[in-house]
Amino acid sequence: MRECISSVIKWLIENSGLAHWVTLFLLIISVCLAYNQLKGQKVQRQWQNFNEMNVRYAELLGKIPFKKEMKQSSDSFESVEEKTKIWIRQYFDLYSEECWLNEKGLLPKGMFNERIRSGVVVNLREYPILKGGYNYWKERDAFKHPVGFYTVVEEDIKRAEEKDPQNEPQDRCVKPIKPQSK
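and the corresponding structure tokens:
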């Protein structure tokens, strides 16, 4: 590439007048503008993907079958109603889509680990039955995910089981307030 540019510049110096230099200058500016435009469109598409996934999560979370059932232990998943099992399958299918989008660079940089995975950890803590549901569907080989999806979910489950989530600033929305001394 460097040799090519050097050859073009040498040729321009030897064979051209001002018109060639102006043309080269305008070409360089055009390439830079096109690159910036494409880069901006990519970032815009990443945020659009993220927002679309948020809407889908909001719709799914708004349809939680029975909140009481969702709070029960993950050990009793076999006795859960079929619609709850299906809901949990949809939840993890949606999560796998986000994993895939992240893997392909189609989500804003850092958003997957800082926001999406942390949200899953919060949900795993809030609804313990999600863990049982994940294991139930995994045993049935129901997920056809990006290669690392199982590892991602199992790491999230471990984080959800940790005793003190306050030590993980990414898993809370607000910084804890320190009591003021009198």
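(Above: one complete record from the training split.) Residues 2-37 form one domain.
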